[in-house]
Amino acid sequence: MADFTFDEVQDTEDEGIMQLVGFGVANEKFGVDILMVQEILRSAEVTAVPNSPEFVEGVLNLRGNIVPVIDLRKRLSLFDPATSQKQSWVLILNIENRVVGFIVDHVTEVLKIEEKSVETAPEIIVSGLESQYIKGVCEIDGSLIIILDFDLVLFNEEQKVLGDLGADTFLLTESEIVE
Which of 78, 155, 165, 173 lies 20 to 30 Å from 124, alpha-carbon distance? Predict the structure, then answer.
């Protein structure tokens, strides 16, 4: 089921270098700090949760543990059924010691960038996204990569909504995941 696993990420010897996992949602390119990525799944079976908010796609069984899955395309208002890919990827992230899955259209590669090349996002870029979710932007090979702050993507008002659903039982800490 898993295509990639990030059991151990070695610290880079080059100070000032940030490693990102690159991924795409709609026509946009994003990155997430590789240290947050626990696993990447291809075409995982997600079970819907009745009466859940629109951004909650459901839950998946990860080696016997239930993990909530958020559709990042919907969360960022970038979901378009006409252009959405039938086969999507699920990024399994460790966010503040909680394991959560995020559906994305595709995963590209591990990107190494200099921390000093990350800039604050210009207002025009964040006009369609909540600027609080963006750590910064950088240019790689002529393309703009938006670096998301997943600590804020889920844990703003959504944390309260998940708690209201009783979904805290779905939010596992990293130590609760049994391999």
Answer: 155
